[in-house]
Design a protein that fits this description.
By secondary structure, the protein is α+β, with helices and mostly antiparallel strands. It folds into two domains: 13-94 and 155-190, no CATH class; 95-153, no CATH class. It is built from five helices and eight strands, in the order αααββαββββββα. The chain has helices at residues 15-22, 25-50, 62-68, 88-93, 163-186; strands spanning 70-75, 78-83, 95-98, 105-108, 125-128, 134-139, 142-148, 150-153. A hairpin with a 2-residue loop joins strand 1 and strand 2 (78-83). Helix 1 (15-22) packs antiparallel against helix 5 (163-186), helix 2 (25-50) runs antiparallel to helix 3 and helix 2 crosses helix 5 (163-186). The longest helix has 26 residues, at 25-50. The radius of gyration is 25 Å and the shape is elongated.
Length: 190
Amino acid sequence: MSIGLLIRREGDSGAPRRLAAALAPARIHPVIGRAASNVFTRHLRDLNRTRPNALGGKRTNYYAGAARATSFRIESDGVLIAINQIGLRQRFFGGTIRAKQSKWLTIPVAPEAHGKRAREFGDLTVVFGRGRQPVGLARAGKLYYALKKSVEQKPDPSVLPARATITAEVDRAVDSTAQRAWRRDQAPGS
C-alpha cells in the first residue's frame, strides 16, 4: 500500500516543510503499520468470538492465537503485516492438504477429537471399510477420526479483513497524524 502526498509551499511560514517531515516514510510507516496491524488483530479476535468449533467440542481459540501472532515490519518501500499462525495461509487460499509425516490425515469427526492429535488417544483402533481399506479411528465403537490421503479446502478470504477496512483505518491514522502536525505548525510561536 502506498500513500502519495502533494505539498505545495505557501508563503514563508515553513509549515509545509514541517508537515512533510511528519509524513516522511521514517515517521509515517510506523503509524501505518500500527493502524493496519490493529485492523488485522481486531478482525481475528472477532472471528475467534463468532466462529465456534463446528463439532461442538472444546475451543482451540485458533483465531485468537492468530491475533496474538500479528505484527508489522517496516520495509524500505512500505509496511509488511505478518501473521505467524500455522494454517492461516491455507485457510485464506484453500487448496489440497496431503499427509506428509504419516500415511493418513486424521480428520476429527467427534467433539472430543477437535484440537487433539490422534496419538493423544492411546486406545484408538483402526476401522476398515470395503476392501480392508482403513477409513477411520475409533474408541469403544465411537468414530473419532476419519482417515484421508488428502482433502481439498475451499478458499476463505474472510479470514482476513477487507481491503477497504484496512485502507479506511490507515487513512484515518495518517490523517490524524497530519492534522496533529498541522496544528503544531500553526500554533503561535512555531
